[in-house]
Amino acid sequence: MRVRVTWHTELLSVVWGQQNPSRCRLFFNGLMTLGFAGAHQQTNLCNESLMLEKLPACGKSFEEMMKKVDSKKWCNLTEFIMYYDNFTQCTEREANNASCFWPNPLAEGFITGIHKQFFSNCTSEKVHWEDPPDEILTTLILIPVMLTCAMITLVVWCSKRSDILV
User: Fold this and answer.
1) What pLDDT band is residue 106 in, cutting at 50, 70 and 90?
2) Which of 1, 22, 32, 71 has the smallest C-beta neighbourhood within 10 Å, fewest atoms?
3) DSSP 3-state assignment of 12?
4) Do residues 86 and 65 make contact, with C-beta atoms less than 8 angstroms apart?
5) Helix (H) or strand (E) run with residue 64 in it
């Protein structure tokens, strides 16, 4: 039985001085399974209590930065986008430090609380749409209808006169 030698087994043979390709293949496949090729699996469990302990520091920092912005401008994102970006990065960093994914339900709950604290009065103003006056509406409807009828009439008339036009 001939063992197929691939580039990675040859490379490992050269690097580790192993002459047995099947042994190198086994070693290489083991590395691949462990995440050598970038398929890293998280083995640590999320420390939710640590994350919940650290997240308020992000909120406090954001609160301090928001004191620099006039409260009347809190609904204008361009006024505080850098502060909000720092807040988001802080919550992500603290979640990752606690071996938690981000976003997660606990972090989202904390962020929602910050939103309620600072942006609860930022409701979008709904535009009240009204129909145009009847004269304008009638005109806007009749113009395309009349143009369509005129085009149909023109096509029919030209098709009847095809012997003269040719």
Assistant:
1) very high
2) 1
3) helix
4) yes
5) helix 48-66
Task: Determine the Cα–Cα distance for residues 101 and 45; give it in Å rounded to an integer.
Answer: 10
At residue 87, the pLDDT reads 96
Q: What does DSSP assign to residue 132?
A: P
The residue behind tokens 């994914």 is: 101
pLDDT of residue 144: 96
Distance CA 159, CA 108 (A): 68
The number of residues making up the chain comes to 166
Which tokens in the block code for residue 159? 């098709």
What is the distance between the alpha carbons of residues 137 and 40, in angstroms, rounded to a whole number?
63
Euclidean distance between CA atoms 23 and 13, whole angstroms: 9
Residue type present at position 91: T
Amino acid at 34: L
